[in-house]
Amino acid sequence: MAHASGAQTPQLTMQDFRIETLRGAAGHVRVGLTRAGQWWFVDARNQPFFSRAVNGLNRTGTTGSRTAQLGSYAAAVDAHYGKVEPKIFADAALTRISAWGFNTIGAWADAEFYDCGVAFTEMMDFRQAAPETTIRLGGAKVPDVFDPRWVAACDQRAAERALARVFSRELIGYFTDDDLVWAQPDGEAGSGEDDGAKRAVRPSLLQICLSLEPSFPAYHAAWEFTLAAHGGELATMARAWDLSLPNKEALRQITLADMALLSAGYRRDQERFAREFARRYFAVTSAAIRRHDPHHLILGCRFTTNPGAAVLAECVAPQVDVVSLTCRDEAVVSRIEVANRAQGMPVLVGEFSWTAETFKRPTAPGELPRLSPIERMLSRGRASLERACTHPALVGYAWARWADRDEHVPLYGEGLVRIDDREAHEHTDALTDFNLRATALRLAAATTK
Question: Domains of the chain, with CATH numbers?
Answer without folding.
Answer: 14-196+297-447 (3.20.20.80)
